[in-house]
């Protein structure tokens, strides 16, 4: 080993000594700006290991942390007052996070913002091995339309986003089937077309003729009875869907307004909600999708079909005759209680002889990459 | 003065002594959560004087400031580590702001976020005396649709938001005129339908039959020639509008594709840009709106019509015959150089005998309330 190299190694060792706990000697230095950064912002960055490097100027701060995936990583301040540091490798896909500056939990000013975890805040995209299926490509794109309406049941203004496929605005004689697609808890109607990339997934599927052109309606799963001021107000989401949203969509858009051309799906809380809505309204829908959730959540107990959802699964033959596609999906790394409750639900379906498709998303947890993959697998089965 | 009142005043004085610099003895204590807060967030708040009160937990911080309207207001920490404080009274309307935590400039986690001032960040709404014209009401609402497209001229994906009025999706035989409406510098295509409330302004105008139902296209005014990597890349926004956006909109939406049914308007930088586009393309548009801007910006000098915009204003009669409505608007509190440059432009129009409408927004500066009012005044004049 020559003298120059020895000196470099010693200096490097000294340099890293103060910070290696945060950075790690073995961090791969191929960081690139995250794909969901604000225009022109260089940080946060992601490397090929899935580590997140963030950076913020806070000259007078005494402690700055990156708060990601339930872990708070200390950042290190340089001579200019700029704090920087890296996380452990993250699983691929989309994650919410925030910065902690001397105890204040705030969005990272480097990213665009997403509604989830009960707040609008920062997100990071760890490039996934299969990211091509939700990539933005030069092919015909559908529209995502913000639709504001007044709901009498909740006595409030509500909003849904409506995806109409490429061609919808020009081919005025065509009518389309509709998928009603719901977000999870502490998320809202923006999730699916933002971090969920539902529009890009369908644009790609439709352009390659893998999915039937369809309308997708993404509404807000939180809907409470008007003037119910109790601590746990009564949810009227099912009534809002059946008596307000569907009639509005059928009047306003060129739908095919029958059960054969309506699907309903959701993720997590949305899977739970839409399963109940599906089973209570088999004359309204004929396709169901449950992504990372079932209506027995959070229980992993054996399901008593006599009482579960008012006995709606008692007659397996009837369910099979009514539901054209019964679809469940789950990430292989999902935490408790999801594998248990979905497993118990599947056992019930098996016992009842109810046909279903079960998809496992490899290596993903209770997160948006699981749900993007679920939509990608589920949508091609609809309206065929 | 009775003894009780004396004691109250003494106690009040002692109480306020530590904080009156920030709060002021005369602050009116009728603060309410801002209308653009995130769901369920109590702060920031606004009082009837237009003061902004913000609050954030930052137990280990040594200095937290509210950075609003070019002034940094020190907040005061309570025993629980929560910082709070108020701004001076702000003029009514919408303002961008941020928090400063020990030197870090970050969004306030209490608000929803808006793109402006070159970043996505916090905004505050000071209720305006005339807020009714942009209020969300129980009447038919149009859609705001996100439209993604690939631009060959810039070799990039671009996006516009398209407002289609109530009834557009149902009345399939109707065709509509189009207003192309542009944002200002350091803003983007989201501005007009978010902080600009263009959709609500038009919903209200159309419902009360004050404006002709129209489509509004809101695109991004930053468009640079493909592969131009120079420090000051060439803007090709005019070419993008004329050869990419308008043909796309006319193909995709039920427009009336002629000059009599096309208007173009913009605010600030967008006024400057759209004025050039208008004058270069009088066969494409017949209505112009310039909100807080003109193409001679920032100069207040007398305009030489022989050279200004290649002599496009030399023949006043020709301009009058081509432009059905030539509309200019400005806030009475706008800073230099806007009154000077708009004034010089008006003088040129007067000298050339060119007919125009000039509107002044009372008490507003170079801000969104000026532009909301401009749109409210301008839109009813179009396509009549």
Please summarize what this structure is.
The structure is a homodimer of 384-residue chains. By secondary structure, the first copy, chain A, is of the alpha+beta class.
What this model shows, in words?
- Chain A folds into 2 domains: 23-127, Sandwich (Immunoglobulin-like); 132-381, Rossmann fold (3-Layer(aba) Sandwich), CATH 3.40.50.
- Chain A is globular, with a radius of gyration of 24 Å.
- In chain A, the strands form 3 sheets. An 8-stranded mixed sheet of chain A has the order 12-13-15-14-16-17-18-19, with helices on both faces. In chain A, strands 4, 5, 8, 9, 10 and 11 form a 6-stranded antiparallel sheet that branches.
- The longest helix of chain A has 16 residues, at 237-252.
- Chain A has helices spanning 3-17, 20-23, 198-207, 237-252, 269-280, 316-322, 338-352, 368-378, and strands spanning 32-33, 45-46, 52-57, 64-68, 71-74, 76-77, 82-86, 93-101, 104-106, 113-116, 119-126, 143-151, 156-164, 178-182, 215-218, 262-267, 287-291, 325-331, 357-361.
- Chain A is an alpha+beta fold.
- β12 (143-151) of chain A pairs antiparallel with β12 of chain B.
